[in-house]
User: Fold these one by one.
Assistant:
Number 1:
Amino acid sequence: MAASEEHRRLFQLLNKRGTLTLRAQLDLWQMLHPVTQPGSKLDFEYPPETVMLSFHSTGKLKIRSRGKVEEAKSGEVRVIAESKQDPWLPLEITLETGAANPKLELTWHTAEDPRPRALQLRRILLPWATAKPSESSPAGRQIPELAGGN
């Protein structure tokens, strides 16, 4: 499998001295706690999750976010945020390019479980994306195939 022409050009640019800015939103809702079926209620409340995101880079790294940003060591920046359903966590990453094989890695863990994990791709959203309104209960849904049934 050969790399596409677009990928080849991207990696050539990453090897040139400069900066790369990435913007996204992160959905940090229910990172460890399972989602319940719509309309159902648990007889207890999960405590709020505190999520720690660790960014590791081979080059100089700068992160802007609404969460608490702290530099851990050279090439590592951490963002600490509360897990909330709405709104998503906006994120701007500025990475220095020009090093041979520039890398950016992201892991996360919570206060409940310190084991580092990879962030699922479904949790990384475009910076202009908006949340779809959630359905309050399954009984309120109108399904055309079932209309008129009893």
Number 2:
Amino acid sequence: MTARIALPMEAAPAPLPPGQRIYAVGDVHGCADRLHAMHEAIRDDLARRPVPAPLLVHLGDYVDRGPDSAGVIALLRDLAIPGVIIINLMGNHEAMLLETLAGEPGAAAQWLDNGGDKALRSWGISPGSAPDGWAAALPASDRDFIAGLAITYRAGPYLFVHAGLRPGVSLARQTREDMLWIREPFLSWTGGFDEDVVVVHGHTPGRAPVLRGRRIGIDTGAVLGGPLSCAVLEANRLGFIFA
């Protein structure tokens, strides 16, 4: 699989300082081949257009629905690109996985209904087996990686988060639930957010990336037949890579 870089870049909602470039990758959902192609495209872009301070942010939902959740986690867990800071955020699907492994009531049924069965199979675990044995059957390195995922990351004027923010609520008072799960009223909001941040998010799939007001949505349904999308932010410009 090959990736496509959509350049030249268009105007971005906010500028970054000279020398900084941010790559933000949307929802992967078990599509390990697409994620591998995306990482190769990012390496190629950096080789052609090096910058002093590159940053790579993955926006969560690495597992479920697609064929190779285990492969995606392995790629992310072991990923190293020389000179690049790599930030991995949690999505609601990772949160459901962790709640299931912790034995929270009703969590296993919810996770299986949302594609957790395919994730289990990718680790060689039968979805029909007893849920209380799943945690021990997952590799400890994968469990630890998923448990250590961050909820948000701030880089200058950009706030990276899986689902979004609740409008009218300060950044300090946003809830974990909203940041992992929110759709409305976030998606239809055209005003600003606290501290005038630009929110870069995934979670809600569309046919193409969305630039609306102070938000950029980059879940383009890789597991649904669309591409895996990566926003590229640099200076006052915005471009995309598709895999």
